[in-house]
């Protein structure tokens, strides 16, 4: 093979991780990138998403964040409030995120983030999308991975690649099969949590001055209570107020199959937050009957490996997380950028050697797994702190909220300046550039 750019890259799934990976490989100069997606188009959940500086740094290198920024909200602070009273437990001002970390913290519409990535991909002639086409089986992992696909209308077919990037999300069939083929399993960890995702239009809220103030603020608000919380922020040029809840999972707990979403009743939703303050009640009451959707929040125990031969998992396929740190999509997009960095470091005369490809993928895993595991754990831990019921632990947490202005540490880890510094200042691509040779050598190969 003349050049790493001639490698045939197959991406499974056109979610945030898959789109980001395809674009990252194209920007590195790879010429043959095929993305296979089950859905017939980018049918993204109608919901908002937080885009922290660490992911904007990656999107900037992929040259696609300016259009995303145009309709996003530049977050200037967060307000953590007691759900029952609306009394503020802590307020964290974030006026200088852009100055500190080079990029702002944005909130936006998922369709805007996905659309920005997709538009970036469409400008790259190297990327071909195959919608309505699912991977159903991995036939081999090396020396060349072979996959069987099932198009929605048509006969199954096989594709041989040089590298497969499996970004097929939390229900990843690639993960399940890869681990089974390695003689292990991927066990789910029961979070006991579910979420309602809601979007309200400005026209529905503007009659209420308190609601309008929330919509016009540049603030992320979190109302917390025992076992539950609500996070809310403006998106889409403040034309939409995005609300995401977390509550005990009662609907999905009994199901044995991996159900992820279900239509829910408005009455049940109002009941869950019945003891929250009148402002929250008025907001939730605006949700149209029949438009309440509930999601099971699922995570997995850390996987024994993310890589088998020339097949690598990324995003929710290998490190699904609770949303309490707002880093799931960010981590998925970062993964793709690190993968592109690692694979492009394989020397030209080694490109036909699957062992070198596998080792480059392994470097990605070694660089990303400890870091993403830490963030996944932190998101779970933060949720436990937010959801404390009455008692000594809650009293201590509330004291820490009160003292947070002095200590720089907030029990809501998302809003905590020390955690933000750790996550927002970490340039994962630069880290891969700096560490690749050392980690590659540690795998028992010559220096790449
Ligand atoms: C309530 C909630 C709030 C969140 N808030 C945030 C936030 O503010 N910030 C943030 O960064 N993250 C957030 N996240 C997390 C984030 O949404 C996910 O981590 C992220 O979308 C994962 O991206 P992914 O590409 O790995 O997977 P997905 O987005 O799930 O994409 C997987 C894709 O693969 C396709 N696919 C699946 N199987 C196959 C197959 N066999 N063949 C072909 N295609 C297949 C699917 O159709 C899908 O398009 C939140 C999550 C939740 C639940």
TrEMBL record:
Record-annotated membrane-spanning stretches: 7-26
GO molecular function: FAD binding; monooxygenase activity
Region (Disordered) residue spans: 386-414
Domain FAD-binding: 8-345
Presence of keyword Membrane: yes
Keyword vocabulary terms for this entry: FAD, Flavoprotein, Membrane, Monooxygenase, Oxidoreductase, Transmembrane, Transmembrane helix
Pfam families assigned to the protein according to its UniProt record, in alphabetical order: FAD_binding_3 (PF01494)
Ranges of Basic and acidic residues composition bias in the record: 387-405
Signal peptide: none
Top-level taxon: Eukaryota
Homology family: Belongs to the paxM FAD-dependent monooxygenase family.
The protein's name: FAD-binding domain-containing protein
Species whose genome carries this gene: Podospora appendiculata
Lineage: Eukaryota, Fungi, Dikarya, Ascomycota, Pezizomycotina
